[in-house]
Design brief:
Blueprint lengths: L2 H16 L4 H12 L6 H18 L1 H28 L15 H26 L8 H17 L14 H13 L7 H11 L4 H10 L1 H16 L8 H30 L4 H20 L1
Helix pairs in contact: 1-2, 1-3, 1-11, 2-6, 3-10, 3-11, 4-5, 5-7, 5-10, 6-8, 6-12, 7-8, 8-9
Length: 292
């Protein structure tokens, strides 16, 4: 892979990971165009790391609170376990702590609930489908589905649910939607945003939840790939590795800009513009599948 190709794919990843046009679909299409179907596991992992850093930069305050409250949940759980054993045989029993007692602790639990179906579906889809280098018709159809969802989302009435009103059922449904979005061409952000609004989430919170819930999903996918990362066939020259890191840095910078852009467009109900693009890109990919 050349430096220019690495930068181009980094730009595509940064744009398509956060704008609702499917990073997997666009990477699959452009890898076909550039003849980079064997681009390598290392580069894919670094691209995702770059976009994760962008999420951490934009939502660092929320993520820091989630980390603190997550540790608080673990600490209070073990305190309750200790009280359970200390209460045995005593008349004057200590009361148990209420573990999920703040909006951020509820937020932590919702992300966990959403991650479970996403993880299961991601493993199943990876074993059944060729997600790394699919035929162009696959991301083409996925992009048409994404376009349809984005066309609908602007018309859905605004919800009012924040972490205080959201339910575990909502989190489970959004997690299933994120799992489906592991298929090429189906936008993860577009799918989770649409399903989040359908489930009554307040639009600003729907965006935040969509991006933050992507963190364990993307990390999990990278961890699953780590076992193959150091295989001999995945060894790469030092120069090319430098190109990979440059591509990841580009993905981070572009991703940061795109998150900020999406927040404005989503708030102003401008998602139809993305739907038109997905329809066109999907049709072109399907046609290219048969004529290329």
């Amino acid at each position: 892979m050349s430096l220019i190709e690495s930068i181009i794919l980094g730009i595509i990843q940064g744009i398509a990971e956060f704008l609702p046009i499917s990073s997997s679909g666009h990477l699959a299409i452009f890898k076909k165009i550039f003849g980079l179907s064997d681009v390598g596991l290392t580069y894919d992992i670094l691209l995702h790391a770059g976009t994760l850093i962008a999420v951490f930069i934009v939502y660092w305050k929320d993520i820091w609170e989630l980390i603190k409250e997550g540790l608080g949940i673990v600490a209070d759980f073990f305190k309750n376990v200790g009280r359970f054993f200390s209460n045995i045989g005593k008349d004057n029993k200590k009361d148990y702590l209420k573990v999920i007692n703040t909006p951020y602790r509820r937020f932590v639990m919702f992300v966990i609930v959403s991650t479970i179906p996403t993880g299961i579906m991601g493993v199943v889809f990876k074993s059944v489908f060729n997600l790394d280098s699919p035929a162009l018709i696959v991301p083409g159809i996925g992009l048409l589905i994404t376009g349809l969802m984005l066309f609908m989302v602007d018309e859905i009435p605004a919800g009012s649910k924040t972490p205080k009103e959201m339910t575990y059922k909502n989190a489970l449904i959004i997690g299933i939607a994120q799992g489906i979005a592991t298929l090429p061409g189906i936008s993860r952000s577009g799918t989770t945003l649409t399903v989040g609004v359908i489930n009554g989430l307040e639009r600003k919170f729907a965006v935040k939840y969509s991006f933050i819930m992507s963190i364990p999903a993307i990390l999990g996918a990278c961890v699953l790939d780590l076992k193959d990362l150091f295989a001999p066939e995945n060894a790469i020259p030092t120069t090319e590795l430098i190109y990979y890191f440059i591509g990841a840095a580009v993905a981070c910078v572009v991703g940061f800009i795109c998150i900020k852009t999406l927040l404005i467009l989503y708030k102003n109900r401008k998602m139809k513009y993305f739907s038109y693009y997905c329809f066109v890109a999907g049709i072109i990919a399907i046609i290219a599948n048969f004529v290329a």
